[in-house]
Amino acid sequence: MEGLLTLEELIDTVLQKMREMDYAKQTILNYQRFYRRFLNFANERNEVYFTENLGSSFLLENYGCTHDTIHENSPTRKICVQVRYIRVLGDYQIHGIILRRKLGPTAASVCPKQFQTAFNGYLEECQSRNLSEQGNYSRMNRIRHFIFYLFLSE
């Protein structure tokens, strides 16, 4: 698993990023508390790196969560916060940013061909101006929603 942060490094990085993004102190404390339990769980199994399977095993063993935590919303509000905590680690490991809370239908949709050139051009322009990854993600998501609205109303 060359190039990946260890679970402990990943957790530290995510918490630091949350501080930089001005998350509320109590929110960060909630994440820290959860991640401490998750890290203990991983250490008991000699797991050094975060994997989606490790996260799913933790949620199953500690919260009885049996659904696909990557593609499905939580079946109960009781565990949706814990699923979010795990998703943040996975998203940060893959994308290097903390993504929005919910993956809407546009997250898995492909931009219609007639809008693709303009969409990609705008993204490149944002990146050339060194706008933040988090800002680009939010901006592009809003544009994607509008594009799908235009596409579906044709």
What pattern of helices and strands is seen along the backbone?
HHHHHH
Shape: globular
**In what range is the share of β-strand residues?**
under 5%
List the uncertain runs: none
Q: Mind describing the biggest β-sheet?
A: none
**Total beta strands:** 0
Residues in helices, as a percent range = 55-70%
What integer is the average pLDDT?
83
Q: Number of helical runs?
A: 6
Q: Cα distance, first to last residue?
A: 47 Å
Structural class of the helix and strand makeup?
mainly alpha
* Count of structural domains: 2
Structure description:
The protein has helices spanning 7-20, 25-44, 52-63, 77-95, 113-128, 133-152. The chain is mainly alpha-helical and 154 residues long. The protein is globular, with a radius of gyration of 18 Å. The chain starts with 6 loop residues before the first helix and ends with a helix. The model has no long low-confidence stretch (mean pLDDT 83).
Short description:
This protein is mainly alpha-helical and 154 residues long.
Which structural traits does this protein have?
0% strand, globular, mainly alpha, single chain, 154 residues
Topology:
Elements: H1 7-20, H2 25-44, H3 52-63, H4 77-95, H5 113-128, H6 133-152
Organism: Acetobacterium wieringae
Protein name: Core-binding (CB) domain-containing protein
